[in-house]
Amino acid sequence: MKRRLNFLLILSLVLSLQINAKEPKKLAQTSFKKKEEARSVDLITADIVPNVKKEKIIGNILRNALETYHYRKLKINNDLSVKAYDQFFKKIDYGKQFFLKSDVKLLSKYKGEMHNEMLSGKHSLVNDAIKIFRERVVEVDKVRQEIFKKEFDWSLDESLELDPEKRDFSKNHKELKNHWRKVFKQATLNRYLSLKEEQDELKNPKKDDKKKDKKKKKAKKEEKVEILTDAQIRKKAHEGISKKYKSFFSRLMKDDRNDYEEKFFNAIASIYDPHTQYLPPKRKEDFDIDISGSLEGIGAVLSEEDPYIKVVKIVPGGAAWRQKELEVDDLILAVGQETGDFVDLVGMRVDDAVRYIRGKKGTIVKLKVKKADGSRKQIEIERDVVQIGESFAKSSVLELKGLGLKVGYIHVPKFYRDFENSSINCTADVRAELERIKTKGVDGVILDLRNNGGGALEDAKQMSGLFIEKGPIVQIKNHDGKVDVLNDTDSSVTYAGPLIVMTNRFSASASEILAAALQDYGRAVIVGGAHSHGKGTVQAVLNLNHGPIQQLLGGEMGALKVTIQKFYRVTGGSTQFKGVTPDITIPDPYEYTKSREQDLEYALPWDRVQPLTFKHWDKNKYDLSTLKKRSSKRVKSSKRFSKIQESVEYLTKRREDTKVSLNMQKVIKEDKLNKEMSEKLKLDEQNKDLMVSFYEDSVRMHEEIKKGDEKKWKKDFKDRNDDWTKQLRQDAGLEEALFILNDMIHMQKGEKLTAVK
């Protein structure tokens, strides 16, 4: 904490900015090609007037922070600007769907000037890009209106390239129109196939439909079902896609200058590495929620259903859940505070709407809602701290028929820590879960870090210490080249028995620190796909509101998440870029995705530092090579893993085939083959021999029961338990981890292993 505070203090002292108090010069004028169709100038130029003082201050703060503290020593100059210019276009128009080649050429005069624009605060590139982009959105929306006046010609033998890397910007307006005609056509075709599938299911109900209907009735979602003809299905798809894109273009036009400034600054930041990022105030708030697993608000998940804000989930234990009046499918029309007028939410972006709904614990928010039955109601809810249950560690006791052992299973979705409330952290929760399952006499433990993208570095260190006596956990190399060591100084061990840690390609950062440390100590057997993600860097979050100049200007300025360190294993190698290689590799269902650190632009390279001296865990009595051989045999003979391998090969091929047909008969034929293959490769088989007991909501979420309606909470328990059990029974990787742990336990006891079937 001391280092963090010092870092913030130094940041505020190194800045010495000259604020130009003069009126900003007239915005750079761009020559645009006049359209024959009339357009709304007000709509295109709205919200683009720059705040030169503020943008200059943010630009200079970011430059000083990046050049001074980032691990990769880069100067923000002409060379960096050229690279950042390309990133700026990717952030605004990644799919190359809006800008023309001539637009890109027109803006190319700024290609080597982004560094100068950043420091001056006069972002002419942003000014011109907003105007051109909005002009193109208006143009494309007019294309939409024209194209959807009649049905598509489905007999044409044409295709659409989906990969923007294999496509260039449109040469002219005619080419842009034709590109969007194909986009609209493909979307309509997909919608048609989806609606047709729904109709086929209505005409030929499956067994599972009865369960779905029961859930619909329970949720009061039952709608009158109508059987449609093929012509009616095509019409419904046609109208639905037109409406969808109308809403999409409307949202694009609502992006204000702040949204574009965020892209401008992040285009520059991204050249340093993929994890360095400028966080404007609203993104900073979301980041804090993500890392802490909690927020202050009403506890409802919202989405946009044009033009309304719709409630899609009520968070168990939250304020809305306890108040009981707000329900799933409610449309929020307006929001008010304890005093003052209501703010109309109709037509507002969901990320803007939540800013009005969130608020300090203990304050009142008033919501005007439209119920599913059409009635309207005003609801008052007292805001509270909302704990996001899916973020927290939870456990179960697993027993696989025929093995004769109990295994404690702990799922850790992220390394969460609330820096404002130190009692909320994942280390404390995992310790509590370990103590809880130990009372059930478990023979071993599986710690599941799959899909855990990381979080607080402190918890990676502390959680490692739950399984070893003491010693170094990770080495950290600072931007100045100095190497520090984070040690576990607590000699107590919460759990000392057989241990497996599960990882996959989405296990990153803090997950990799823990997995690497326990692997290097020989404390755990790591089981998973070929490699973990490979994010071996540490970020600091610098609050840009600190410092006299910022405070003088007033208003929120956001934060900078900047990479300041790389971490290294106690054996010297970095987990950056390469990730952690498991002791025992099993097929990964997500192997087909290009989602690892090495797939990201400007990722920092792998390197190493000097290894440390540490005491290996000496209580293991199992032979790793024997475990590998036995696991390999089981995997090769497993029908579930064979299906996973075949699925990966199939999906890899589909990912690489980026050109899609727009001929209806061809697409229907391809869709039929894809459905047959998907059905064949569906990974939904459950191992009913797996008994899941002692499932409860996480220790952390149990605290929420005390705040509200325990009866209501328990009423929902069966559904949560059934979903959890089904998820575990479908998990082929977990099943193999249980077999590996069984072998470990028998070896530990000196017992003879049975032959692998």
TrEMBL record:
Residues 1-21 form the signal peptide. Residues 200-221 are annotated as: Disordered. SUPFAM superfamilies: ClpP/crotonase (SSF52096), PDZ domain-like (SSF50156). Residues 288-358 form the PDZ domain. GO terms for biological process: proteolysis; signal transduction. InterPro entries: ClpP/crotonase-like_dom_sf (IPR029045), PDZ (IPR001478), PDZ_sf (IPR036034), Peptidase_S41A (IPR004447), Tail-specific_protease (IPR005151), Tail_Prtase_C (IPR020992), TSP_N (IPR040573). It comes from the Bacteria. Residues 200-211 have a biased composition (Basic and acidic residues). Keywords: Hydrolase, Protease, Serine protease, Signal. Belongs to the peptidase S41A family. PANTHER family: CARBOXYL-TERMINAL-PROCESSING PEPTIDASE 3, CHLOROPLASTIC (PTHR32060:SF22), TAIL-SPECIFIC PROTEASE (PTHR32060). This is Carboxy-terminal protease for penicillin-binding protein 3. The gene is prc.
